Amino acid sequence: MIICSLASGLSFGHHARGTMATLCFFRFWLGFGIGGDYPLSATIMSEYANKKTRGSFIAAVFAMQGFGILTGGIVGLVVSAAFEHTHHAYNKNVELSLPPRADYVWRIILMFGAVPAAMTFYWRMKMPETARYTALIAKNAKKAAEDMAQVLNVEFDPEEAKLEKFVEEPSNQYGLFTKEFLHRHGLHLLGTATCWFLLDISFYSQNLFQKTIFTAIHWLPPAANMSAIQEVYKISRAQTLIALCGTVPGYWFTVLFIDKIGRWVIQLQGFFFMTVFMFALGIPFHFWTHHKIPFIIMYSLTFFFSNFGPNATTFVLPAEIFPARLRSTCHGISAAAGKAGAIVGAFGFLYASEDSRKSKDDKGYPPGLGVRYSLIVLGFISLFGMVFTFLVPEPKGKSLEELSGENEDDSIDAVEESTPDKQGAFNRTIPA
């Protein structure tokens, strides 16, 4: 992630296509790193947390994405404002915002992504494997006990006999491509993957094309009336405002309520309100073009309920409901389905949001549905998300083993059943 963030800003080429090709190459490998970080972060947190507060801990990990989105907007504001302030000619002549000076802006913004990754690198490298993986998959109960003692600062007594009894149990040896997995968790994986796929169609299309939506309601001036640097500044300002008012609060509402009202309810109500607000924005869209402030408020609410809803829970649920040996794999599959939805949303909205009148659409693009009907389509997509939520179980208050069916013979005890006593020491032994 560090290397590819820096390399993205150093993308090279004699022509625009060459630069874009090398940029795509580095962004692919950046995605490879992020694609590994998603399931690892969720799984590590779920397997070290106790069942009473597990949802809040996993959601808190994901809620940092909100601060990342906010920081990204602020970085865009600062960099574009600095270049705009230094080169006043940008205000007078649009052509002066073209390369070479404007070329620095996007490069600096992309390279800044290496900073948070570098800040956490040392601690991430020192983080041990989860006890469940070490005990159940690597079959090293002693090492698992040492790791748990290191992370939780307590002493554990590994019970080798229980470990041996568990790992020999045939019912727990099934793989991903087996009838046993299909029977136990097939619908669960379909639910988590499809919900994440549908959510990201909506979530990423809204994030990537805020400029198009804000221009359609006349909150932002047409691109022809701004220099490229001014456009970056105005879009960053709008995105920062949306993140501050809707995105970040939504994440932390989830952290606050997820272990009280449950993941399933939060996801269902999130999809429901996303559906309602998409229809409310899309159907009377021409009305909102003359009432910008109410539109922005309602548009912010779609982000609020996305994050106090499926954008957070689709990250949490796959880390809880699958067995230890397949937990990160199933989470990775679900996250990959989400990114497939992001691709559909990015390309779909790019073309669908074009004006249906050929004289009004952007140069080089065929006529589309327009922003109004695109929002209505996103409303239906959120509605389908509600339907597929019914395939996902509610993990609130249950141990990971109970959810995955790994303790059917009571041969192991769940880590999350270990609770601190008044002196802070754990009153149970490490599960084998």
Describe the structure.
The chain is mainly alpha-helical. It is built from 18 helices and no strands. α1 (2-9) packs antiparallel against α2 (16-48), α1 packs antiparallel against α4 (101-111) and α6 runs antiparallel to α7. The longest helix has 34 residues, at 228-261. It starts with a helix and ends in a 28-residue tail after the last helix.
Secondary-structure blueprint:
Blueprint: H1 2-9, H2 16-48, H3 54-86, H4 101-111, H5 114-126, H6 131-137, H7 141-152, H8 160-167, H9 179-208, H10 210-216, H11 228-261, H12 263-282, H13 285-288, H14 292-307, H15 310-316, H16 327-352, H17 371-389, H18 400-404
Brief rundown of the structure:
The protein has 432 residues and is mainly alpha-helical.
Number of strands: 0
CATH topology of the domain at 46-102 and 188-400: Growth Hormone, Chain: A
Low-confidence spans: pLDDT under 50, at least 5 residues?
408-432
Q: What do the pLDDT scores average to? A: 82
CATH-defined architecture of the domain at 46-102 and 188-400:
Up-down Bundle
Measured as a percent range, the helix fraction is 55-70%
First-to-last CA distance: 35 Å
Overall outline? globular
The CATH homologous superfamily of the domain at 46-102 and 188-400 is named MFS general substrate transporter like domains
**Which class do the helix and strand fractions yield?**
mainly alpha
CATH class category name of the domain at 46-102 and 188-400: Mainly Alpha
How many helical stretches?
A: 18
Work out the strand percent: under 5%
Largest pleated sheet: none
Any idea what the radius of gyration is? 24 Å
Q: What's the helix-strand series?
A: HHHHHHHHHHHHHHHHHH
Keywords: Membrane, Phosphate transport, Symport, Transmembrane, Transmembrane helix, Transport
Main location: membrane
Organism: Rhododendron simsii
Pfam families: Sugar_tr (PF00083)
